[in-house]
Specification:
By secondary structure, this protein is α+β, with helices and mostly antiparallel strands. The protein contains four helices and 14 strands.
Length: about 290
Amino acid sequence: MLSLHRLRAVFFAVITLAIAGACTAGEGQPEPAPVAVEPVSVDQIDDTADAACEEPAAPQAPPPADAAVDTPDAETCPEGMILVEGEYCPVVRQDCARWLEDPDVFSYARCAEYEPFQICLAPRQHKRFCIDKDEYTPPGAELPAAHQSWRDARGICQAQGKRLCQESEWEFACEGEQMLPYPYGLVRDPEICNFDQQDLYKPDGSLRDMREPGEARPRCESPFGVRNMVGNLDEWTLRETSPGLHRSVLRGGWWMAARDRCRASTTAHNEIYEGPQTGVRCCSSPVAAER
């Protein structure tokens, strides 16, 4: 005679097989093979039956890659500016593979091509800010503004609710996380950016105006999409890293044959100096996106 324990086990096995048949009836499924059944209490049978016939939950499709994320702290940049965010390297080693002039003789020696590996020599710093896509161009004008002093540049930026860029911000917007010597890469190319012009002076000795509109050379673009950060015009920044007596530092170089790279700076001019080659580019903090 079977014990009570064995009777319960057999009873549960029969019920389980009956449930399986009920759930697959009419589906043409083969009869399940016998399985070993562990002892279970009668109180568990009803719960097991309900679970066995439940429809499986439908998988949830992931949201589209371009779907907007509704975050309360979403931020954006004002019109005409680009959001720059990433890890900036304060100290970079960039080795020149080929010089156009002897760097031991000429302080403004130009590197024709850099080695492919740039080395960060200090802990990186997270940066997040907005920067003008183009050099400041007055409303209705075709060419970016020139003859601007550091004080003029600061006033132009403040009038737009912006500010002068710090040196580190300007550098990062120019070179990207790749720490590129030139915003577009490693090889100096005057066809890409407006530098290395030769016929600089008029017969009377005054400087020729060789500025170009912001969109004139679309390939002269940084990894973030900022245009003309080398050549075209020198741009005022707030001194932060370069040694010097003044808060005023020029970045990027202009159309002459000079260094014109992301890490080069001119610190000799004071805050009221201006020339036909000095222009303006502004930065700002991101603002809350309109909802």
